[in-house]
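Bumping with the actual sequence this time:
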Amino acid sequence: MGNGKKLLLTVLMISSLLLVSRGDCTASYQEYGKLGITLKESEYPHDPIPHQFDNSVLLDYNLQINEGNLIGCFKLSANYSQNQDGLFFSLAKGYVTYQNEFLSFELGKNRVLNGVGYAWNPADIMNPKKSPLYRDEEKRSDEGVFFTSLSYYGFLNSLAYEVRGIMLPAADRRQSKGVLSTKLAWQSLETLFLVGFQKDEQPVYAGTGRFSCTELPFTLYGEFRNYEMKTDWKYLLGIQYNPSFTVFGGNIQAQLEYFRNENSYRHDVVDYYAYYPGETPVLGELYENYAYVGLTYYSLGLITSCGVIKNLDQDGSGMINYLLTYPLNNESTISLGGYLPFGRDVDEFPYFIDRNYEIYLTLSIAFGD
């Protein structure tokens, strides 16, 4: 089944649920959305017109329906882009969930098992890759995948567990994926183990772990992924610091992550497309060793955030991204953000980003519940 048919099927499924629920006064609804107007400017180093603008208008509409054990949710987006000179519609999410005391069944489109890392998620073997360029989560990626899943969960003394089977269909059956996951939680420790299956491919093993220190303001976390019978390890180690003291009347949060890719690219980036024609590189995962440092400051509604991703190998390039968000009132916020790659023109981040910088200003207006 093609993606267009899947989209239509999901919309019909959600619409049917809405119509059925409206005949029952016990159903509850939550409708909300956001209108975003963005002014964006970029500088291209090798373009005859270096300074270019791509202003856009984005409208998101969300609907959630709750009726007993049944939950329906979808997110519809309409986006106008100045550069593409067109209006585009997309269904970022659209799914129904039936759950009882020990079982849960889901069908539709959503992000599934995201991982625990910020800059990297090697254990995320299902969702579209998040963009490392932005600090705004909505700009990083909110697009889901079509899936069907069945979960069994419960408690064993103080241990919470969930066993979940997930199927990701594809138009080409050979591209369909199956994933079996086991989630365990005990006090401040959470773990997740996954095994992924795909025809003509070796099984892939992945996992995450997260531990919150009760005596200290630290959270430790990590992820890994590897294919059976291959040396294709990718793993992440991270620490998050949430101090209890205030700085100038505000709170801070700091993160440090280390990412390693043992099946790394061994050549200069300018030769990448000669070795992998038609393939898009995953920015920030090309070579072996990377680090990320992030700092966020919260004060009276103002959120100031900055992050640095850097290659620790000989390439040495990296990127700085930033975001300032200020609430104008209860419904609207204004944000200033962007990114700045650094390094030589022939290094990973400047070469594949191919911009000296990007900066944008967004006015967001929320509506609904």
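The tokens above came from a reply further down the thread. The mean pLDDT is 89.
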